[in-house]
């Protein structure tokens, strides 16, 4: 695991980003903070393929934010906006991440964050952004 942390830090330097490994619930892979260009990865993951896939997916969000891509998602004023374009934006990030990861190391198999059905994803995004969360 320590090797992967070191590797992720090295990759992030190229993108002027920072990465932190935190304990999170298992339903969460990672997230990022645009203002500080920081990426947070669930430290429960130990598989290099998965860790690098999460890292590049979150890097995609930071790149989108910097370049004003999918602003309705990354710079949204209303949660509804995010739900509406969320799926496309997330899939765009997956595609960007897959390409960048391939350039970085062809041997790593990219694991998509958003490969599920549309219905499943829409529900997920609704819960995520509109706070329709079940208490646990
Ligand atoms: Zn995402």
Structure description:
The protein is built from 5 helices and 3 strands; from the N terminus they run H-E-E-E-H-H-H-H. With 136 residues, the protein is mainly α. The chain has one domain: Arc Repressor Mutant, subunit A. Strands 1-3-2 form a 3-stranded mixed β-sheet. Helices cover 55% and strands 10% of the residues. The two termini are 29 Å apart. It is globular and about 40 Å long. The protein has helices at 2-14, 48-66, 71-74, 79-104, 118-130; strands at 18-22, 30-33, 38-42. Helix 2 (48-66) crosses helix 4 (79-104) and helix 4 (79-104) crosses helix 5. The model has no long low-confidence stretch (mean pLDDT 88). The protein binds zinc ion. Zinc ion is lined by residues 57, 61, 90, 93, 113.
Q: Nutshell version of this structure?
A:
It contains 5 helices and 3 strands; from the N terminus they run αβββαααα.
Give the end-to-end Cα distance, rounded to a whole number of Å: 29 Å
What fraction of residues sit in β-strands? Answer: 5-15%
Alpha-beta classification: mainly alpha
Number of helices: 5
CATH architecture term? Orthogonal Bundle
Widest sheet: strand ordering: 1-3-2
CATH topology: Arc Repressor Mutant, subunit A
* Helicity range: 55-70%
Number of strands: 3
Major sheet characteristics: 3 strands, mixed
What does the average pLDDT come to?
88
Please state the CA-atom Rg, rounded to the nearest Å: 15 Å
Whole-number count of domains: 1
Bound molecules: zinc ion
The coarse silhouette is globular
How do the helices and strands follow one another from N- to C-terminus? HEEEHHHH
């Amino acid at each position: 695991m320590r090797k992967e942390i070191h590797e992720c830090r090295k990759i992030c330097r190229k993108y002027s980003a920072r990465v932190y490994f935190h304990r999170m619930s298992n339903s969460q892979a990672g997230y990022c903070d645009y203002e500080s260009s920081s990426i947070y990865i669930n430290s429960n993951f130990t598989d290099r393929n998965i860790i690098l896939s999460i890292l590049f997916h979150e890097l995609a969000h930071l790149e989108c934010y910097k370049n004003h891509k999918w602003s309705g998602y990354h710079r949204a004023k209303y949660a509804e906006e995010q739900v509406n374009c969320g799926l496309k934006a997330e899939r765009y990030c997956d595609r960007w991440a897959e390409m960048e990861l391939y350039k970085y190391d062809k041997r790593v198999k990219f694991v998509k964050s958003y490969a599920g059905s549309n219905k499943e994803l829409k529900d997920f995004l609704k819960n995520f952004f509109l706070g329709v969360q079940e208490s646990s």
